[in-house]
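Record format v2
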Amino acid sequence: MLKRVLTVTGFAFLCVAISAQSTTRPKFLDRARIQRSGSGIMVTANDSIPLFQALYALRLEYGWQVDWESAPGYSHFDVVDDTDPKWRAAHVGEKGVTRPAGGLFTATLPEASDPSDPTVEREVLSGLIGEYNATDNPGKYALRAAEPDGRFAVVGVQVRGESGELQFASPLLDTPVTLTKTRRNVYDTVESIFTALQSATGKRVIFAAASSSLFRMTETTTGGEKVAARELLTQALASTKQPIQYDLFFNPDVPVYILNVSPAMREEDDGKDGRKLIPTDGHR
Amino acid sequence: MPSSEITEFSGTILITQGQFLMTLEPSTNSYDGHQVTEKSPVIGSNTCWWSGSGINQYPTVQGSTWLVNQGSAGHNQYGLDTVGFESGVVNLIQQQGAAHGVEFPCVVNIYQSMTYDTIDLYVTNLQTQTIGSNTVKVCRAGVCSGTIPF
């Protein structure tokens, strides 16, 4: 009898747990964790875009300047509903919102014994991408090195279609655009690149810089005819003489691309139970 | 070296970004021709962010350097310092944030340490952008834009 009560109680508990799971949005990590063991590190990320969360942690760990371009997922294989239950209850019948369908991702990588060595950086980033591409998380990624400084970019190159098949996703910043060589500040140059991209592709990009004094004070003559947008963008950023990296994301609900920028930095213990940022040159 | 600075709200740009002009203190000294550089001592925070939004979760300053008494800045002044997301980003947050569980008003916090001639730290500021469902407010070192309808 007691066993039966326990079984029924256990079943009831399981039902409650499953019910809670199906109505509660996932609890992601605030930041990826890096743990050391021997000559390697293990990176644990849990986010809707876990590869970016892992990359963000590695950038701060080693002071690397690495650009990011999300795979523009759109199908129900790559995006999931993210509508807040309270909002949904108050907006019955209205269109909800989605987020990328990523979740937990762990990677075991070699320790970057000399983070300033581009060969080491390439090895770690290639390992990270290789492990990610072997998971079911959304998007497949490739590592690209830009000329002439050799800075790396992690670029989304495949997404899943509505049938679940992997399909090539032409990176937006591969698009050739023409930008008149005129003296402008960097902020206006970046906005002009977005305008040229929208004319060429019909896709809109918005600039999400929460701090932008550097871009407004620095002048540049970046431009060219039928040049990949990525090349123009990295030229414009380089004219600031700061190791500015960019992150390009895609929001399929609007739809719109969002570009934000940040200086490469390293983070370390401040000796007072906190973390402090140290400016770096991004190793370029 | 300066011991502090006075922040003055100068105006808005792209509707939702605030611009600020600073005067170095004490005014008995001249700082003209010297450099003032910003850096972030720690990462910031952003309650307007949601996972997958593409907005910066941990914003920082860009690392600008200003020359004192240059351009529109007068004796012992430097600037402008531009704070906050432009209107397209604010609009995205206002249109989509609530459905993702963002509670308004939400706040973007950026920490900014100022050094004189790239060595001497003389002040650390908090920059904020507070986004409501149809308002925005931008502040630097406690000096604010006032409420911007948007």
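Chain A touches chain B through 52 residues (CB under 8 Å).
The longest helix of chain A spans residues 2-23.
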